[in-house]
Structures are given as structure tokens and as C-alpha cells.
Amino acid sequence: MSDFLNRALGRALLSRGMGATDVILIRHGQQERPGADAPESDAFDPPLSELGRAQAQAAAEALAGEPLQAVFASDLRRASETGEAIAARHGLGVEADERLREVGIFERVPPGASIMDTVGQTAAQAAAADLVRTRKWDAVPLSESSDAFRRGAHAAIWDIVRTFARDQPPVEEGEPGPTIAIACHGGIINAFLAQEYGIAIDFLFRPVHAGITRVRFDLQGPLDTEAGRAMMVTGNEHAHLVPGGLVTY
């Protein structure tokens, strides 16, 4: 293959060594779960469960050999605790960012109430059926809208990547760019990818707890435009969770 074509393919496909920024998205470990009769507000910001802490450590071990230069996380405890486990292996701190929070599916449910109490059993059951049919957050009564969540997640991750990369020294031609990790939520990962690729549904896949998804960012885009683009490299890696029987959703 001609060298110019090989280089063009490398740029088109964002091959490693093209100076792109590698971003490792990690879903948080399993959180402690409130009882079935608990209000929806109890599910907003629980810490990691004992199993979740083991999952976070497994992810940290899996990423111990990565050349991480920074770790970012949602400010919700289950994500920030996962980020802390990963960052500790690299002697890094965690930069918390509330823009990385999970979708607010109970955003407008009154404090201390459940969604069943608020909208009634019939409406709740109809919403569950709509969620399966449409695969969009808009089906959930009183939820943050799909459009607002997707746009917010997409903008937040792009802003984190651009801001970080702007402060890095120039990358020599043929050398890999920087690598960062973002510990966040399954909804955020799906929302970012769906918005980046123009996919209408909100549910692309179900990330496992402490699963790993890699995305490569070209900050200028294929024609040196300002738009930039992102390419999914791997999705939902979880081989690091299998040996200990740590795979949960």
C-alpha cells in the first residue's frame, strides 16, 4: 500500500500514534441499593457497595499499566470512589465534575416520594412499556429529558478533553497523544456515544459495573477543522471482572 494512502487511513481511522487523545470511560462499581420501599431520593448518591469496591479495584488493576495523565469523575460518590481507586495506582488525584452525573430519571419526583406514589401504578406501568419500546429516557415520567441529557453529556466530555489537551505540550508526529480516564455512569457513556454518532436511541448497550470503554479524540477533525471527532475503540471491556465473579449490571 502506498505510504500516503496508509497515512490517510491512519488519520481517517485515528490509529494510535496520530497524536489523538485517548479517553478511557469507566462505569462506576456497584452502588449500595436502597430498599424497595425507599423514596427515589435515596438512590441519588449512594456509595459503592462492598462488591462495588472490589470491582473498582479490579478496574484499577486492569488500567495500572496505562499511561494515565489525569483522572476525572462524576461528583456522585459511586463514580468518584471508582475514580479514586484508579487514580491511586498512578499517584494522581481525581478532578470531580458535576456535569458527568447520571441522567436525572427522578429529577422532578418530590423529595421523600416514590415515582409510583407520584404518578400512579397505571402511568408507571405504561412508562415501563414505553421505555422498552422507545429506548429513550423521555419515556420515564418526571425525568430529565433525553435531549438535554445527551447534549450535556456530550458537551461535558468534549470540554474536559479539549481543556486537558490544550495544556499539554505538542505531540511529535507519529507519537501517541495523552491518555486520561473518566469514571462516570452508564447513562453518560451511552449518551455521549449516541450523540457523537447521531443515534436516536439512548440505550446502545448496558455497561457492566466497572466496565471500560475506550474512545479516541481527534481535536481538529479529519480536515483540520475545529469540529473534532471521536471514535469508539472498544466497548464494555470486562474481562478484568470475570476471574473474581465480579460481573454485575
How does this model look, in words?
- With 249 residues, the protein is α/β, with parallel strands linked by helices.
- The protein has one domain: Rossmann fold (3-Layer(aba) Sandwich).
- 35% of the residues lie in helices and 16% in strands.
- It is built from seven helices and six strands; from the N terminus they run H-E-H-E-H-E-H-H-H-E-H-E-E.
- Strands 3-2-4-1-5-6 form a six-stranded mixed beta sheet.
- The N and C termini lie far apart (44 Å).
- The model has no long low-confidence stretch (mean pLDDT 91).
Mean pLDDT over the residues: 91
Number of domains: 1
**What is the overall shape?**
globular
Helix coverage percent: 25-40%
* Total DSSP E strands: 6
The CATH H-level superfamily is Phosphoglycerate mutase-like
Protein structure class:
alpha/beta
State the CATH topology: Rossmann fold
Order of helices and strands: HEHEHEHHHEHEE
Protein name: Histidine phosphatase family protein
Organism: Brevibacterium rongguiense
Pfam families: His_Phos_1
GO molecular function: phosphatase activity
Detail the topology: elements first, then pairings.
Elements: H1 3-12, E1 21-27, H2 50-62, E2 68-74, H3 77-88, E3 94-97, H4 115-119, H5 121-134, H6 146-166, E4 179-184, H7 186-197, E5 212-218, E6 229-237
InterPro entries: His_Pase_superF_clade-1, His_PPase_superfam, PGM_Phosphatase
Pfam family, one: His_Phos_1
Organism: Brevibacterium rongguiense
The gist of it:
This protein has 249 residues and is α/β, with parallel strands linked by helices.
